[in-house]
Amino acid sequence: MGLDLVTIWTLVIGFVLMMYVLLDGFDLGIGLLFLGVRSKRERDIMVNSVAPIWDGNETWLCWGGAGLMAAFPLAYAVILEALYIPLLAMLFG
Mind telling me which residue stretches traverse the membrane in this protein (predicted)? Predict the structure, then answer.
């Protein structure tokens, strides 16, 4: 039984999504803790601690989106069209 491109791309995109979910916990945890801190110094420390990881986590999203667009363009079109309103709400909210 050989692997075809659909199976390979599904595994790659699944791995990318899993890595994003696992590594994004640190960002989200700092974001939740950020709400309870009033001191500017402590907030700066929190933001500086998450800064190197933040960009890495967003890279997983770019890889996943690009892989989805390259391997499954119809699924990419359907998923992104369904996310237009939530994405705009996050941008303008």
Answer: 6-35, 74-92
CA neighbor of 83 nearest in space, from 65, 70, 56 = 65
CA distance 59 to 32: 22
Tokens of 19: 């890595």
pLDDT at 22: 85
pLDDT digits (tens, 9 = 90+) for 66-88: 999 999 999 999 998 999 999 89
Contacts of 26 (CB under 8 A, 6+ apart): 50, 53
Distance CA 42, CA 59 (A): 27
